Amino acid sequence: MLLKERTYKPKRAGMWRYARAASPCGVRNLERDRSFGRSSPGRQPMVVRYNRHMEDKPISIARLVALDDALTPGEWLLVAAEQTIGRAPTCDIVVPRQTVSRLHARIVREGPRHLLLDASSANGTFVNGRQLSSPHLLSNRDTIGLGTAGDLLRFVDPDPTVVPTSRLRFDERTQIFSLGSQPLELTPGQHKLLIYLYRHLGELCTREGCAEAIWGRDYDPGLDAEALDRALSNLRGVLRRAGQGDELLQTRRGLGYILLAQAQP
Question: Model's pTM, two decimal places?
């Protein structure tokens, strides 16, 4: 490598030394010695190097961002298995408003996703302007209101999981079914029936098995036929509405019923 160095004295005190090296990186070394006109032969020049691999990269952690300037610190990383939201100073995310309950809501991590639950608050929890009546699986950029429908927080997921819109899932811990990203609202009878069908996913389930799952006794065709037809029809309607028309519960005439996790193409 060819290296040329020149040393000279300017009119005022101080000495500059420049060293330029013709290298592939194009690094320029520059040192200024302000030792009252005395040079420092043993002093190494300061080298500034720019490396594109050292640039700051965003951390892929879901977080809540405040939409109200009165809320501090303004951003909360969702790193714990469960985090609480409320007016009490003991909450993980403190919202000092009188319409917010001391313990208002909870966010529970479910694998890579986050579930928002209202903690029996006095004035309710809202997502995208709608009051929650069941746990809600948060999606990127969902807005959260506490006590009123006004947006106070935004959920941000820098690495959102892509979930098929018609994928049926069941959380054993919370006993909640969800289709896509939306939890299903089920009656107790519908919940029992769907658990039975889900545990036999893709398999043929008889009317006798469905009836026993709902009522806990043997199927009586003369007594239960109409009620069972109604229960199956209502459950099919819930799945169809949540799946935007997809038929997840299929009938096999004279045989029984088959539940699919995802609509067939």
Answer: 0.45
